[in-house]
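Re-run requested by the PI after the first attempt was lost when the workstation crashed. Everything re-entered from the original request form. Ligand of interest: D-glutamic acid.
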Amino acid sequence: MTADKPIGVFDSGIGGLTVARQLRRALPHEDLVYLGDTARVPYGTKSPATVIRFAREDTQFLLRQGVKAVVVACNTASAWALPALEQGFQLPVFGVILPGVRAALRRTRAGRIGVIGTTATIRSQAYSRGLLSRSDTVSVLAKACPLLVPLVEEGWMRHPVTLAVLREYLRPLRRRRIDTLILGCTHYPLLKPALRAVLGPGVALVDSAESCARYVRERLAHLGLLSARRRSGALHSFVTDEPERFAERARQFLGGVVEPARKVELAPWTGGVR
Ligand code: DGL
């Protein structure tokens, strides 16, 4: 039965496990197949054409694993490649941008919304456009924060250096007195305590992983694709580089034990797989 097939999730690397974590929370009975393209991470510094090519190859791989839907956990890939994936593959594809946009519009009071993400995500203006096309009253200030991914990968979630970097990046957003901040990158949910410390309690933090998981649940229900099984879902992970390095750090992103990942080679996108 299609509804009992797993949900595919891909990211440029390990960060998408923050989305897998929220999916497990929102959909505890669903099996997940996770692909981290660890050989080619980061996507956030790459050109749109490259990100789209990688995203197609990632989706093609997941499709070949027999998934019923694909979640693009990577904000950069969601920002640039979602239309290409929706066009190129005949299965439901969900990104993180739209759910984040909707959550931010629900949360904002004063209508001043900040967005942070990788250089490529901010360059795409995907969040800004999404927000401004759905509301006439909000103003958006987007800021690329390229140093944050390496700091999180280093495990420096509350390190003074990270706090100093955050203060610097967030200065223009604080000056504009944003009341809502979209965390537009897979790694940023791990920075919530540090963001809180810098921004204070008055700014709502929109975790795009959390809003994405709720959105996926809503859409799968609508499509009649929720599994009726009642056992706990499994998580099978694949990576494109050494599984050992993934295993070392995966726990922190997933918030739980991760079974060893398998290394795979991704085939070039043929354009023929549906
Ligand atoms: N996963 C990416 C994102 O959410 C961050 C890491 C990268 O640059 O690949 O944009």
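Saved to the shared folder this time. The longest helix spans residues 48-64.
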